User: Which sequence fits this backbone?
């Protein structure tokens, strides 16, 4: 809803600039494109396989920690203070290693995310290229993503960024004097 409000506001800002000329707007369903485009499905399958391998490795680490913890609990009363502290430290170190592994492999900037971004980038470029071709061939001024409300294509003449920057600089210069 918030994104749609931004788009409506954008078009309200554009109306005075472009007059009442006919604007041709189209949209795409990016979720459907990603679901039905074969290269995306292939990448998803490959990523799922890699993720399963890493999950197995992570589960082994967790099982090792659990086993050490159980051994520690069984023998704790028989251990010297020094031995107990060493074992506790060993368990804490393994837990830290597990957390680091999880973050490094599955975190927001982890291996899986980087792999996904690297593999999807060429596919996303193909999708964007197809959108650009359709927009130009059919004379669209804007193409929106129906799922996110973001602009996927716009004619450069509707880009007001430079005008806004000039206005900001002008206002900033006059307020500094």
Assistant:
């Amino acid at each position: 809803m918030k994104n749609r409000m931004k788009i409506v506001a954008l078009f309200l800002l554009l109306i005075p600039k472009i007059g009442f000329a006919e604007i041709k707007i189209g949209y795409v369903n990016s979720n459907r494109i990603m679901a039905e485009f074969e290269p995306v499905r292939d990448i998803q399958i490959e990523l799922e396989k890699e993720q399963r391998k890493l999950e197995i490795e992570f589960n082994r680490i967790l099982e090792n920690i659990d086993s050490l913890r159980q051994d520690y609990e069984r023998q704790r009363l028989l251990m010297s203070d020094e031995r107990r502290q060493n074992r506790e430290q060993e368990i804490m170190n393994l837990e830290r290693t597990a957390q680091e592994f999880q973050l490094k492999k599955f975190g927001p900037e982890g291996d899986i995310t980087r792999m996904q971004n690297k593999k999807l980038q060429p596919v996303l470029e193909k999708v964007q290229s197809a959108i650009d071709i359709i927009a130009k061939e059919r004379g669209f001024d804007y193409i929106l993503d129906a799922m996110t409300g973001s602009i996927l294509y716009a004619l450069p003449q509707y880009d007001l960024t430079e005008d806004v920057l000039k206005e900001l600089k002008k206002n900033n210069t006059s307020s500094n004097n």
User: Anything to note?
Assistant: The chain has a mean pLDDT of 86.
